[in-house]
């Protein structure tokens, strides 16, 4: 159990570094470097690196160890479509399980996101949008689905926005939040099918170059 915990710690450390842009595409990552940075033995470091390679975040190079895999734009779009299908299912399942209070919380979060966009507080927006989606995902009553979604979000969705063009980012996030508001309206009507379709569209129409 202790070794599993250490492996998970290393896994989360490397994954976070990749998502936050500290580990760049094609950058080499060695067991010894990880062991020194976290203070663990080679076994959990090797297990975590192998797992990340299996999940397509790293690539194993013969006799060279591991490098950060460069994810192409099409791969990102394909992954977002998969997330959209899974979140659509979660939304469909959660529509009649969400309480009025929880839907009101989601509505309040859209208002807070509007404020974050207005003042260009994009880290705050990212935190709020994560909270927003977590509400209905956690209510879908399907642990396997929840774990699949969270794994994909953790591994493939950036933890910060990298676009330096404030105007493009502003418009992209404003559009995204308008869809959040539309989702709240459909949840209030308890329309499972429309909730599912909107969530699929929400992820399918993301322009990865705008974020």
SSE series:
HEHHEEHHHHHH
Q: Which stretches are low in confidence, meaning pLDDT under 50 for 5 or more residues running? A: none
Query: How many DSSP helices?
Result: 9
Strand-residue fraction? under 5%
Largest sheet: number of strands, sense, barrel closure: 3 strands, antiparallel
Secondary-structure-based class equals mainly alpha
Task: Indicate the radius of gyration in whole angstroms.
Answer: 19 Å
Write down the overall mean pLDDT. 88
How many strands appear in the DSSP assignment?
A: 3
| Arrangement of strands in the largest sheet | 1-3-2
| Large-scale geometry | globular
What is the first-to-last residue Cα distance? 39 Å
């Amino acid at each position: 159990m202790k070794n599993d915990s250490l492996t998970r710690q290393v896994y989360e450390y490397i994954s976070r570094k990749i998502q936050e842009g500290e580990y760049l595409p094609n950058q080499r990552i060695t067991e010894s470097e990880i062991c020194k940075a976290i203070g663990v033995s080679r076994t959990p470091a090797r297990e975590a690196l192998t797992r990340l390679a299996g999940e397509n975040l790293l690539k194993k190079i013969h006799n060279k160890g591991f490098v950060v895999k460069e994810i192409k734009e099409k791969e990102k779009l394909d992954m977002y479509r998969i997330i959209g299908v899974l979140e659509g299912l979660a939304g469909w399942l959660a529509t009649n399980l969400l309480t009025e209070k929880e839907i009101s919380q989601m509505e309040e979060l859209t208002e807070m996101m509007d404020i974050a966009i207005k003042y260009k507080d994009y880290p705050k927006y990212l935190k709020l949008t994560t909270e927003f989606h977590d509400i209905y995902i956690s209510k879908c009553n399907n642990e396997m689905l929840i774990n699949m979604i969270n794994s994909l979000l953790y591994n493939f969705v950036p933890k910060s926005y990298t676009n330096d063009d404030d105007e493009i980012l502003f418009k992209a996030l404003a559009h995204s939040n308008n869809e959040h508001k539309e989702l709240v309206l459909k949840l209030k009507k308890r329309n499972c099918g429309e909730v599912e379709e909107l969530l699929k569209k929400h992820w399918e129409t993301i322009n990865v170059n705008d974020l």
